[in-house]
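At this stage, I wrote out one protein, both as residues and as discrete backbone shape codes, and that material follows here.
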Amino acid sequence: MARLFVSWGAAVGVWTIGAIVAADLAPSPKGTVPVNELGEVLRLHLPWILTSFLGTVVAGIYHREAPDGMYRSCAILLVPIAGAVAGVVLGTPAASTLLAALMYVIDVLLGAVLGLLIANSLREQD
């Protein structure tokens, strides 16, 4: 149980740092500087995907001794899913409109799924 709390704490730490970086990289909401599609992907979507990915991998690394199955997956995915919900509820700039909130949740879930795949593959290598 202690390892579970350590994995969640590490994932929250990664998530916090990633959220600060993502908020700093996000384009200004005023629209004073035009952003092309590549700039939007690199500055708005990619930081959230990477934050979710790294948080999930870190939680998976700390929680790799747990038995297989749904318990391990739910324990690893708790922080990214809670972070996605918190980001929408707290009004993260990436989730300012309904469509932006949907894209934000998709970004976070994509990163979490990729992170879970990598965490599972790292566990199988041990």
Residues 13 and 124 are 25 Å apart (CA to CA).
